[in-house]
Amino acid sequence: MSPSQLTKLLQVLSQWRNIHQSVGPRSGLHTIIAWVLCFLAASISSAGGVGGGSLYLPILNLIAGMDLKAAAAVSAFMVTGGSVSNVIFNILFFTKNSKSLSIVDYEIALLSQPSMLLGVSIGVFCNVMFPEWLITALLVVFLACCTYKTCQAGCKCWKTESNEMKQDEISGELDDEKEEPLLEKHKDEGEGIPWKKIMTLLLVWISFFVIHVLIGNKDSKSILHVRPCGAAYWLITLFQLPIAAGFTIFVLYDIRRSKNRYPDQQKDGLEGEAENRAKDLPVVIFPLVALLSGILSGIFGIGGGLLINPVLLQIGVPPQVTAGTTSFMVLFSSSMSLVQYLIIGMKAIRQALAFAGLCFVASIVGLVIIQRAIGKSGRASLIVFSVSTVMALSTISITFFGAIDVWRDYTAGKNMGFKLPC
């Protein structure tokens, strides 16, 4: 495509988007289409354990006719609603049914959450300083690479599962006999809800939330009337470093003590091989991965689940554990955004709750379908392909939005270079 053709295409797309945004909130057919698309997006996202915010935004903006600020606020409600049902399903269903293939690794969540929240804060500052075109280009390249890598991991997992099935048919071993020790061990480990770990995560969430409320942001005033970028502002902001480090060190110490008391047993099979490989990694890798994912999440302005999910898959965490753990972590990050929107006085709360309820139901539907599909086919790789689908759709939508926004800023003569954080 020649530069002139590309310019003409961007002009047409920009005009089309401006027309759709100027119409305002719609009703009737557009609303029905938006609900159907959001339902499908929530179903696919929940199956992979990601929030789906990058899919909700274009639907709410272009189909439902919301402006970007309102769409972002409603999207936070939708991601939270889907995450709530996802977490409830993973915790309760696995507790009652030992044959569930979707579990939550609370150790990974505890190790990752403080670093991810710290990374988001760092990424937000980078987002302010980086030009729009650089953020868009980095995001598109990153998502495209992750989509490719995740598809590769899914194909590899599918191939391994096929080979295992052929070996089982040749040897004549029954699946029930082979899976019983693994299922029994999972049942013993997952018996009951680890309230201590959940309370620790809540304490992490409250600590970071209090800091954000104290310093305020561009949309709300600080309750302490802290001057943006003043000495008090930076002092409170930098206090996130010792909080994240303190919680991470405490969790590392607790995990090390637990492992010395209850040594891990090696597991067999495809899931066992992946989980053993993940457990052999230094535990410090999870906070580092979460920090990087949080920084990228803050820079790009999307949920951390879309970024940390493929990374966990690449380092060897089983697909079922990755989906359950990521959705659990997304609940904390999305709920923080939700509360912040409520504090600054967002409007259309009823509409946001309606969309959140839709995503709650859609997520359960998606989880039930994917669990039944895995149970019948014996292929956990379906979760990986679900993540790949969300990432591919996100790449397309973000490329579309980003290209139009960059073109609009360029034609308007806005600054296309780096900016100061304050």
Q: What do these coordinates show?
A:
The protein is mainly α and 422 residues long. Helix 5 runs parallel beside helix 12, helix 12 runs antiparallel to helix 13 and helix 13 crosses helix 16. The chain is globular, with a radius of gyration of 22 Å. About 8% of the residues have low confidence. InterPro entries: TM_pro_TauE-like. Belongs to the 4-toluene sulfonate uptake permease (TSUP) (TC 2.A.102) family. One of its GO terms (biological process) is protein ubiquitination.
Question: What is the topology?
Answer:
Blueprint: H1 3-23, H2 29-48, H3 53-63, H4 68-96, H5 106-129, H6 132-171, H7 175-190, H8 195-215, H9 231-238, H10 240-261, H11 269-280, H12 285-300, H13 305-314, H14 319-343, H15 349-377, H16 381-411
Helix pairs in contact: 1-16, 2-3, 2-15, 2-16, 3-4, 4-14, 4-15, 5-8, 5-10, 5-12, 5-14, 6-13, 6-16, 8-10, 8-14, 12-13, 13-14, 13-16
What labels would you give this structure?
single chain, 422 residues, mainly alpha, 16 helices, 0% strand
Element string (H = helix, E = strand): HHHHHHHHHHHHHHHH
* Major sheet details: none
Strand percentage: under 5%
Alpha-carbon Rg, integer: 22 Å
Which class do the helix and strand fractions yield?
mainly alpha
Query: What does the overall shape look like?
Result: globular
Ends distance: 39 Å
Whole-number mean pLDDT: 75
Helical content (DSSP H or I, runs of 4+): over 70%
| Low-confidence region ranges | 98-102, 174-191, 266-275
Number of helices: 16
When the domains are counted, the total is 1
Number of E-type strands: 0
Organism: Apostasia shenzhenica
Family: Belongs to the 4-toluene sulfonate uptake permease (TSUP) (TC 2.A.102) family.
Keywords: Membrane, Transmembrane, Transmembrane helix
Protein name: Sulfite exporter TauE/SafE family protein 2
